[in-house]
Design a protein that fits this description.
Blueprint lengths: L2 H29 L13 H7 L2 H5 L4 H6 L3 H7 L39 H6 L5 H9 L1 H4 L13 H13 L11
The structure holds heme C.
The site of heme C has 30 residues, from helix 6 and helix 7.
Amino acid sequence: MDSFELNKVAGAVLGTLLFAMGTGFLAELIYKPKPAGDRGFPLPVAEAAAAGGGAEAAKEEPLPVRLASADAAKGQNAAKKCSACHSFEKGGPNKVGPDLWGVVGRPKASHEGFNYSAAMKAKGGSWTYEDLDHFIHAPKGFVQGTIMAFAGVPSGAERADILAYLKTLSDQPVEFPKP
Ligand code: HEC
């Protein structure tokens, strides 16, 4: 190979390198990514929170206030969604869940003949209106590991109505907490 030939090879190599560099540079000029800015549309975050009860919970009145204007008749109607699993009569049968006659003030997990979850047995204390409100709002949030397969009642007003109905299911109704 003489020097002329070597020059040709070197030239070819250099040329290829230059070409690669050049196209790379050009490509970068053309396709340089620009920051996205705020194109597109905002995701409906507020709406999702409302659906999950977040926004609603935020503007909810405290329980004693809600109970003061609660309606037991409306509550009885709303409690139809519980009756798939619960009976409400005195001495009524345990179904999927325990009979709820006299549940207000009753020690948790204490209805005769019902096989409660370990989580419910471990919860302890008696059912206050406050506890019932939390449990009916989000059963699995209040008693982690409960076998009550129910999503919960998101509306605070509706829960208060249900509690007003539960209050009537007793020979000695427990008074509502004072606002
Ligand atoms: C899909 C069936 C189902 C539905 C619907 C349901 N529950 Fe229950 N409930 C259960 C089961 C099962 C238990 C026992 C939970 C455990 O042992 O963890 C229970 C337990 C309870 C308890 C505790 C009782 C006690 O003796 O300690 C209360 C209070 C209660 N439910 C109220 C309600 C109310 C009010 C509704 C309607 C808003 C409702 N439940 C809807 C199945 C249901």
